[in-house]
Amino acid sequence: MIKRTVRKIDFRLIPILTMMYLVSAMDRANLSLARAANNNQMVKDLQLQIGDRYSIATLAFFIPYIILEVPSQAGLRVFGAKIWLGGATLLWGVMMLCMGFVKTWQQLAALRGLLGVFEATLFPGAAYLISCWYPRRLMATRMSYFFIGAMFLNAFSGILAWGIGDGLHRKSGLHGWQWIFILYGLITIFIGICAILLIVDFPDKATFLTDDEREMVLTRIQRDRNDAVYDHLTVTKVLRHLTDFRIWLFGLFFCSAALCIYALAYFLPQILAGMGFDNKMSQILTAPPSFYSPIPCIIMAKIADKYNMRMHMVALNAIITVVGVAMFSQLSKDQTAARYVGVFLATGGCQASIPLITSWSQTCIRSQSKRAVMSATVVAWGGIGGILASVSFRQAEIPHYTTGIFLTIGLCAFAAVGSFCLWLWFMAQNRKADRGEKILEDDPDFRFQ
Fold first, then answer.
1. What is the DSSP string of 303-329?
2. Within 13 Å of residue 406, how many CA atoms lie on the same side as its CB?
């Protein structure tokens, strides 16, 4: 009964969340694809080549995205996952559609800001929802299915954008970059409608389970970490939870991986062009590294869950990311193949890090209110990673992006060392709890993983 119920939950919860995060990833990153379409036609139309206008347009997304991460979690329980997450997806699809009709770079930046408002609900909401359904030993794998499934499908976005941009350029009086925004917006609106109809709510409200199945799910969560019962999110609890240093440390780990992901999403076509590839190949070659990334992501998530090696996998991925970034940025110009291999390593390393960091942060805490604050704050640091990518990968440094490259290497190296130090602290706290000297997370039976 347990395996059948878990599979039932998997099929109802993970696919729709994956599709929602897919359009989220596509919509926040397709700015670089639209920029490159038709030999940078969007740059000419909106005069993005002047100063740091393109960087400002990318940056505009992250300011509301960061600010609204934690507040967005309050609405999730009030309105339910269907309305809150599905409605947000529908609304940011409308923003994406509108981007196809902008006339100035200021209008583009404003719509990017509104995109950040609505997207702020999704990732922390999805991470929180997943953590409420599964015991800790299944969490990394389910987070990975959710995240990497979207990243794998997102690998086709570069090819899709190239096809749309070239195939529909000047159709109905619109340029290719406009059609990219319009069609991506329509896809997102469709997914948002599907989410409102299909997404499942929290275990205590799940109508697709029988009474026995619902009771079994809640019992497993209660036995695993004793927090199956919802405790209301209040301002006092939020402020208390935010004093936990682990939230901020996990946020920095998440930031390091997100910085690399956003840098590759926004600037990989220009990096590939710097390797000698033409405009067409620079867009097409963004896809293969993302086809590879599910392999290390799933393997490492299964190892993390089965052998409780969460820190080991987070640190390993950070090291792999450092090696990959160093390869594609520092090797000589005549080593194109090796540099492109570095793109694979960097992509796989940073993408595999996200679900591992997210799930590790959720396994070391108790109470649903703290779980909501943890997921929102950690993911907000991903927005800070996006800002750092926007400002450190400077237009003046194309195609080498020296500042951004060394910042990425430095933060990922910090994540590798920091995760090891945090693990040592966890083990020391567990030993104190075993000796009866300390109670962890207000539960005598709780231990860090």
1. HHHHHT-HHHHHHHHHHHHHHHHHHHH
2. 5
- Which of 218, 246, 214 minimizes the C-alpha distance to 135? 218
Q: Tokens 């019962």 — which residue? A: 229
Residue 440's DSSP bridge partners are 443
| Residue-range domains of the chain with CATH | 2-434 (1.20.1250.20)
- Least Cα distance to 204 among 191, 187, 192, 222 occurs for 222
Q: What is the pLDDT of residue 261?
A: 92
**The pair of three-digit structure tokens given for residue 27, joined into one six-digit string:** 């919509």
In the block, which residue shows the tokens 């301002």? Answer: 235
Q: How far apart are CA 116 and CA 121, in angstroms?
A: 9
DSSP structural state of residue 138: G
The Cα 141–Cα 129 span in angstroms is 14
- CB proximity list for 433: less than 8 A, separation 6 or greater: 439, 440, 444, 446, 447
Nearest alpha-carbon partner for 142 in 291, 15, 20? 15
Q: How confident is the model over 44-103, as pLDDT tens digits?
A: 999 998 888 888 888 888 889 999 998 888 888 788 888 999 999 999 999 999 999 999
Q: CB under 8 Å to 425, separation ≥6 — which residues?
A: none
**Distance from C-alpha of 276 to C-alpha of 289, rounded to nearest angstrom:** 18
pLDDT tens per residue across span 8-21: 999 999 999 999 99
Q: Residue 67 has what pLDDT?
A: 92
Q: Residue 391's pLDDT is what?
A: 85
pLDDT of residue 46: 94
CA distance linking residue 98 with residue 168, whole number of Å: 17
Sequence-distant (6+) residues with CB within 8 A of 331 are 338, 339, 342
